[in-house]
Amino acid sequence: MVAHGTSMLPFIKDGTKLTIEPFQNPPRIGDVVAFERIESNDLVIHRIVEKREDGYLIKGDNSKMSENCKFPGSIIGKITDNGPALFFGIIPRQTIDFIISVLSRYRIVEFGWKIGKIIK
User: Among residues 61, 69, 63, which one has the least CA distance to residue 97?
Assistant: First the structure.
C-alpha cells in the first residue's frame, strides 16, 4: 500500500510504501493501524491514541480530527516498518510510539510540524 495525504506527517509522508500486517496481539496505544471508515469504506492509516471500553480512539499525527474504532471490527491491521527496534540504541520503539501517540492526541505533533515549516 502507498500512503496518500498529509494526516500522518511528519512520520508518514505522502507516497511512503506501507505494509499492513494482521495483529498477533491486541492493538496498543501508539500503534499505527489501518482501519476502514464505515461511512465511506475508505482505508485510513492513523495512530491509536487512547484505549476505550468499546474500542480505540484513533487520530492522524497531523490531524485535528479523531475517530472511534472497534477491534475486532473496523481496524484491519498494524502498519509495520523495518526501522530499528531501539531509538538511538537505548529507547524501545514501543516507548517512542507511545510518546508520539500522547503528543498527537494533544495536537503537539501537529503544532510542532507547523512551526517547523514556518522556520524553514
Answer: 61
Distance CA 72, CA 3 (A): 23
- Tell me the residue ranges of DSSP E strands in the chain: 19-21, 32-36, 43-52, 55-59, 66-69, 75-80, 86-87, 91-92
Residue 64 pairs in a beta bridge with none
Question: How far is residue 99's CA from residue 1's CA, in Å, rounded to a whole number?
Answer: 26
Grid cell in block for residue 118: 514556518
DSSP code of 2?
B
CATH 2.30.30 fits 19-119, yes or no: yes
Longest CA–CA span in the chain (Å) reads 42
Residues 6 or more apart in contact with residue 98 via CB below 8 angstroms = 28, 29, 30
CB atoms within 10 A of CB 55: 20
pLDDT in tens, 39-91: 888 899 999 999 999 899 999 988 888 998 888 788 999 988 755 554 445 66
User: The whole model's pTM is what?
Assistant: 0.73
